[in-house]
Each structure stands twice: as structure tokens, then as C-alpha cells.
Amino acid sequence: MTATATPAPTVALVRRSARVRLLWLAVLVALLVAAGVTSLAVGSRQVAWHDVVAALGGARDGLDHAAVAVRVPRTALAALVGAALGLAGAVMQGVTRNPLADPGILGVTTGASLAVVVGIAWFGLTTATSKVWVAILGAGVTAVFVYVIGSLGRGGATPLKLALAGAATSAALSSFIAGVVLGRNDISGTVRSWQVGGVGGATFATMTPVLPFLAAGLVVCLACARSLDSLALGDDVAAGLGENVAVARGVASLGAIVLCGAATSVAGPIAFVGLVVPHACRLIVGPAHRWLLPFSALAGACLLLLGDVVGRVVARPEEIAVGIITAIVGAPFFIAIVRRRKVREL
Question: For the chain, how long is the longest CA-to-CA vector?
């Protein structure tokens, strides 16, 4: 009797867990839609909801409709970049088994930024397609460099060593960027505003060349969900389960690097989205990457959309770039994670 009764609670628990996750997924999708509509309606000029609907339907006969038309590509870009950074952060944390992993903290976005700035200053890069290739190359080289530096010494690539290597690399690359831009008045204004990280001035023309890279990175990262679950058990256990650890880690890292490079090329370096979002999503869906990765993408899009709206509202009629808003939110979160863990555990 006991033997036959035991499986029932387990099955019920699994089903309930799936139902809860699907419920949270519906909530997250609803929040994304609400954030998108809010992004279209709120700004230096407030637009009524019925005017938003009319503008989306094609109306262009007033200032409110024109304002919505300008905000549509900006809203789309914020959602795409937020999803890319949130997903990339979740993958990086899974690959390195590092709770502090984030494209900004590990210096990946700064490496992409330096590559783009050097390309603009020294090689005359102007097209969005050339910038995204250069940004992905810079992100990849920086990721490999940080991982190699963090792996030196006893204990290999511990989370603390990777975070320190990433912070030092990011600071050094930022200095290189300043050195490249210094004295170049022809590009300094554009580069400095881009370096803050933001989605203002977005157009579909600048977004279109980046979309294939974002799509490719998204597919690769989502396809690596099962491998990331195996890597979370440790390299030896993953290898025992038949996983090729080096290939799994390399493919997942490639997907994250493509997402980071593409997002940085079009929006500039935006930090802490990849740190905050995966941790928040784990509280909702747990560590299983088949749930965590899509949730991180949706939550990242929500965070960047809402951050962009806040940046437009708090300093009206001026705007604060969304990269500043995410830094204000993410820096205390980063400190809290570090304080919650003993240094020897990191």
C-alpha cells in the first residue's frame, strides 16, 4: 500500500510545478506587452492609449501619432537588446558556473565596444553590418582572454578570479577606448553618447543587419539548455553522462558572445542586465535551463523596456540613457550577491 501510494504526490508536485511555471510565463508575457505599450505611450510627450492604438493601425495625422511612430523602433530595439543580454547572462553563468557572470562584469561588452571604436576611428567603419562583425570578434577575444587569465593559478577559473579578471580587463579596455577617442573630435561626440548605452534614436534601418545575428545567437543558446544542465553537475559528471564538455562549453559560449556582440554594436555597452535577470528568474522557475533561458530572455526584454521608460520620465524633457538606469539597479544587486557568499566559496 505504501509503495503504490508514494508516486502520486511526486507526479502531482511535478505537474503543479509545470503549471506554476506556465502561469509565470503568462505573467511575464503580459508584463512584456504592457511594458511595450507603456514604452510607446510614455516619454517627453505623453500619448493617450487610443492614439497609440490608432498610430499602430497606421494613423499619421498628428504629433501624437508621429511620436508613437518614432518610438516603435526604439521599443523593438530595447526588447531585443534586453532579451539578448538576459539570455547571454544566463548562459554565461551556466557555462562558468559563476553566479557573478555577466557580459559587463566579465568585460565582454567592453571588448566589443573597443573593437567597434577602433574600427570607426582607424578603419572608417560606418555600416551596421561591419560594426556587428567587429563587435562579435572583440567580444570573443575578450571572453577568451578573461577566461584564460581567470584560470591561472591554483583552483582554476573560480568565480572570484573570473570576476576580478573581468573587472580589471574592463577597466583597461575602457582606458584604451578613451585613448582612441581622445583628440578625435570628429567621432568623440558620437562614440561618447554610444558608450553610455542606450536605445534612443533607433531605426529599423540600423536594426535590420543585427537581427540575423540575434536570431542565430538565440537559437544556439536555447539549443544548449540540456548541455548547460549537465555542466551544472560538474565536468566529471557531465562527461560521465556522455556530454562532450569542451564542445558544450564552446558552443554555448559562442551563442552568448554572438548575442553580446550584436547587442553592443547597436545599443552600446549596457551592464548588469545579464546579472540581475537570471538570478531573479531562478527564484521563479529554478535552475533548469530549458525554463531559465526563455524566462531570462523575456525578463531581460521587460527590464530594458521599463528602464528605458524610467529614463525618459525622471528627467523630463531630457532623457537618461537606459545604460545608466541598469547600472543604478544592478550595482547594488551585484554587491548583495557578493555579500551573501563567502569569498572562499566564490
Answer: 82
